[in-house]
Design brief:
The chain is of the alpha+beta class and 181 residues long. 16% of the residues lie in helices and 30% in strands. The strands form three sheets. It has a five-stranded antiparallel beta sheet with strand order 1-7-5-3-4, with no helix packed on it. The two termini are 40 Å apart.
Length: 181
């Protein structure tokens, strides 16, 4: 039913989640990443791992096996994070993790997207709105698809070709932004 008066709605302070920890030590306030096996890791792994969140409290699983302990992760909010060479012009830019404690504004194959600059603080610190959602990579079109999509009707083939090109352009933009795997 549509609201016809003020509505009292409970709001949580933030979103937290527990994730099985890899056999590593997670430090409070450090970044955590989901590795290929689904465990919370403490490494970027050359850009392969996905951002999982910021460690809410220290979890030492270094003496155990992966999954023996769970690490509590903060999944949203604005965080004051460190790096170097920042300016006021960096507000609204995408932010990447280069390790478990350092951010960069330069996307590459060896970093992981973690958020967007919310506020400039200093040349070594930015307030970053983190996000842990990601867009899974769609299957790429291949030369075989091009043959399959050839209808023999020139206007339709042109539209299909244009769509294929635009999809490739969009995927390249999302990949550069670190939003596709």
């Amino acid at each position: 039913m549509a609201a016809t008066a003020n509505v009292i709605t409970n709001k949580s302070a933030g979103c937290r989640r527990e994730q099985p920890a890899a056999a590593v030590r997670h430090y409070e306030g450090a970044f955590a990443f989901t590795d290929a096996t689904g465990f919370a890791a403490a490494v970027v792994a050359s850009g392969v791992n996905r951002f999982a969140g910021i460690v809410a409290k220290e979890c030492d699983n270094s003496a155990g096996s992966a999954g023996d302990k769970k690490v509590e992760l903060e999944k949203d909010g604005c965080w004051d994070l460190v790096g170097s060479g920042f300016t006021q012009a960096d507000v609204d830019k995408l932010v990447y993790a280069s390790d478990s404690n350092t951010i960069t504004l330069t996307g590459s194959a060896t970093v992981v997207l973690i958020g967007r600059v919310e506020k400039y603080i200093s040349t070594t610190k930015l307030s970053v709105r983190i996000f842990t959602e990601y867009i899974p990579r769609a299957a790429a079109l291949t030369a075989a698809d091009a043959t399959t999509l050839n209808t023999g009707h020139a206007p339709s083939d042109t539209v299909i070709g244009n769509m294929r090109n635009r999809i490739a352009e969009i995927e390249a933009i999302l990949q550069k932004a670190g939003m596709v795997l």
